[in-house]
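Hi R.,

Here's the chain you asked about this morning:
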Amino acid sequence: MIDEALRFLSLADANVRYVLTGSVLLGAASGVVGTFTVLRKRSLIGDALAHAALPGVALGFLLTLSKSIMPLFIGASVAGILGVLAIIGISKMGRIKEDSAIGIVLSVFFGVGIVLLTHIQRLPSGNQSGLDKFLFGQAASMLPQDIALMSVISLIAVATIILFYKEFRLLVFDANYLAALGFPVTMLDILLMFLVVLVVMIGLQAVGVVLMAALLITPAAGARFWTDKLKNMLFLAAFFGAVSGMLGAFFSSLAPRVPTGPVMVLAATLFFVISALTAPKRGLLAKWQQQRNNKKRMDQEHFLRATLEWMESNGPKTEVRVWDISQNIGRSEIKTRQIARSLAKENMITMPSQSVKLTEKGYKRALAILKSHRLWEYYLLHRMSLQEDHVHRDADQVEHILSNEMIEQLEAILKEQGVDTDKITSVHPVNL
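And the predicted structure, written out as tokens:
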């Protein structure tokens, strides 16, 4: 295995260079074009067109009886374009939605392709045709002319994306606005699907019909976790795709019987999983941490409000027992003490003995929370006509998300209706 790894890293073998170059080009081009199909919510278009290309490959062989890559690619391209037109035609015929049209085209074209492949295998030269490799790909069979063709098509696809970047950006985010500006939305949609056809064509030999859709979707989906900007997503998707191609070529070289295509897809899936877990805003770990922080903040605010309410109703006493607070907020005394310790670290309270005492900072925060709660509670009860037993619970939930601006707007609404908001939000003086 070490010898195979050194052989790959040295790039001395021409076949290694061909496989590596082709895989990287395919991964990068798939990431760029796949970004727009994912954002346009046309992810399965690539799957449909990959399956639709199979009968084109078979017909290209039947017409020429040659495995030369050019006639096979031409046949696949023609079949892919027919697949695009079929999807558009079926979806515009009537009540058939686009997802149904994609399913019809995928299954029918793929069925025709399998029938033609079966027929080819029965021909005298059928066993040597090797067309079954287009189902799962065989990157190791790529030749210099294949790499040249992949390079040209990849450059055409990327150049088209750059040339029509503004139009494609509007197409995926606001097609109605694009149409209002006078641009031909349908033609741009067809152009985007044609780019998908081109990428699918160059990927058939390396990845195959079955897995090509994964290479179009997965790098773009993984990149989406990291950014809200289209340009950044394009670069990330291209990077994920290219590195997936590199890893696919490397690991398949270590085990010669393992095809490159499936390893590329597994590498792209690994990037997707890492992105889904660790992305700073949309990742599962970030969302879990955010939910944890929100829960902690809500517990703290309930604690502060309960402390101030107890102090308000019990006269001059400034220290509140932890047990009294736990009864008010409905949490165990152990959990209440945990909340108290977190507030003490933030200088919101002090903890003398078995009691707690608000600091000036904690009092100001508790006062704002209590006023917000009472204001929203009054609004729900007297203006929204909710039942009284529902009001306190709803106010408990909403008080944590009301910003200062929202509270000011709520006060303004009530004042316009003649409500004395100062009386609603008044809090009896409390000595600290």
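The chain has 20 helices and three strands.

Let me know if you need anything else.
M.
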